[in-house]
Amino acid sequence: MSADMLKAICHFLPALFISTSLLKAESEIKNVLLIVSDDLKASALGCYGNEICKTPNLDRLAARGMVFQRAYCQGTWCAPSRLSFMHSRYEGRAGKNMGAHFRDHGLHSARVGKIYHMRVPGDIIAGTDGQDIPSSWDEKFNTRGLEAHTPGDYACLNLNIFTKELDNRQSTKMPHRMFVSVEYQGDGSDQPDWKAADKTVALLQEHQSKPFFIATGFVRPHYPSVAPKQYFAKYPFADMPLPKVPANDLDDIPKPGLGQTLSQNSGISKWPANQKRMWSAYYATVTYMDEQLGKVLDQLDRLKLTDSTAIVFISDHGYHLGEHHFWQKSNLHVEVTRVPMIIAAPGMTPGFSQSATELMDIYPTLCSLLKLPTPKSVQGRNLVPVLQNPKTKVRSAALSLVRGSHCLRGDRWAYMRYRSGEEELYDMQNDPHQFANLASSEEHEDVRLKMHEQLKTRLKEIK
Q: What predicted TM-score, i.e. pTM, was given to this entire model?
């Protein structure tokens, strides 16, 4: 974590410790604001140690909440992850979803933007609902944008294409859409995340006098990386460091563990400068999204709702930007499975926790904070004990899943087992970037067997 980040948090904490001690006796949590970012890796944020990307509003939320430094998604791409945390199920949609449950107990439930899966850019351009579940909401609002078709400086970085022309741009369902960026002249008010922030601000004003559950989905930093030029200017591409990738890094990763999009098969391996541009564009859209979050936090403070509202910020999963030569998501390595999760709840002391947590834990945690019953279908764990004491553990390991393959992430070891039976094992204490697969190491055979048994037990428990 950067020195500046530590100074910022230390600046906030004394007042927060005093205020939370006073609130404990009188706070009553009536409302929930759930904010979901899209494709946001935890390592991109200042409060998770990033010293380049500017996220002042997430950092101030972190200073008033609990930062879960070892939170993991269950689904490793948008649709299964979002279905999972909204139902608190490892897979599928059994039981009552979070929005429907809160509605049944008197909260006004509203969706702004992407909560369940929407195609980005397809559903954003069309303004359509995607895979939304209507029972979750009393009202819902989609946020439209032109996405890759935004007039401005367009780039398709794996093809080394740079143009202002609007024709022939990679967009919905096109094979190179994940390498697109657009920087343009403007204030950003035409973008879906600006519209999501404005609508959330309006809903807070409208519903401030009654209990509410407002779920706001920001689509950035999901591709295409579209933002006004001033956000790109904060991150000159030539200054962007690329992740270290050792020679022959892919040799010990089994075929099912390889990312779907590699530097080599996408073409971006030919353009190192464009790999740097990918980082610049990603950071630009993260900072833009963070600025929209700031408007929502300001409105909560302005309306004096902070003392009665539990605020949760998460991403649906992480993202690869060239680590291991991987791009995108849908695999079990740490840049995808580890997600940001911040919970700011009145009466709870802020801090940082190393407790292994899962996105599924949000549903039962909010039930507990609201003093509501937790449905029997819920598979997640209540994190209120961790909010009260960050050293508390509610589970020994976190589980992530993708297409019949699994990752079990314990305190020290990350173990992947694929549907084919092939495996990966990493010592996260000594190898946090997962460069040395120890699954075939005789020295670590006992660890591999132990993790395999733990995974089998866990999978039996969740059936």
A: 0.94
Res. 7: pLDDT tops 80: no
Check pLDDT > 60 for residue 10: no
CA dihedral 262, 268, 271, 274 (to 10 degrees): -110
Residue 424 pairs in a beta bridge with 416
Residue 5 scores a pLDDT above 60: no
Which is nearest to 228 in space by CA: 282, 279, 178, 288? 288
3-state secondary structure 262-285: EHHHHCHHHCHHHHHHHHHHHHHH
For the chain, domain boundaries: 3-144+196-396
Amino acid symbol at 439: A
Among 1.20.58.100, 3.40.720.10, 3.30.1360.20, 3.30.930.10, what is the CATH number of 3-144+196-396?
3.40.720.10
Pairing of the two strands 108-113 and 139-141: parallel
Which strands sit side by side in the sheet containing 341-344, from one edge to the other? 139-141, 108-113, 212-217, 31-37, 309-315, 341-344, 66-68, 351-353
Measured CA to CA, the distance from residue 341 to residue 5 in angstroms comes to 17
What pLDDT shows up at residue 12? 47
